[in-house]
């Protein structure tokens, strides 16, 4: 589903006026579908193959990330979602957000692939050597 023009206008207005406290911020749109969707969503870990696009936003700061920077990114994402508030918005695992609840992040990263990925994790990495805060766990825990 595409973004309504009014949402795009609101995003540009927000980007022009919002306080960020960031040294640098970026907003990337990666095109989906096409050849990406030629591979079944359950054939790999990446479950968002039918998405029209993926929006990735991030900011860099010196030192600790301020509440202002977090609020800037959250505000940007809320505006982007406002055109279709009931739609599912997955997330891209390469942009881990330690502030997000682990269970939600895992569901949003891997969608319906998560049970299969847990099974693979139990077989290939039962000691959880390859790990980050929101990576696939061998069990269904949120830890």
Helicity level, as a percent range? 25-40%
**Main sheet: strands, sense, barrel:** 2 strands, antiparallel
Give the DSSP E fraction (strand runs of 2 or more residues): 5-15%
In terms of structural class, how would the helical and strand content be classed? alpha+beta
What does this structure look like?
The chain is an alpha+beta fold and 143 residues long. It starts with a helix and ends in a 19-residue tail after the last helix. The protein has a two-stranded antiparallel sheet. The mean pLDDT is 84. It has helices spanning 5-17, 67-81, 102-110, 114-124; strands at 24-31, 53-60. It is built from 4 helices and 2 strands.
Attribute tags:
143 residues; 11% strand
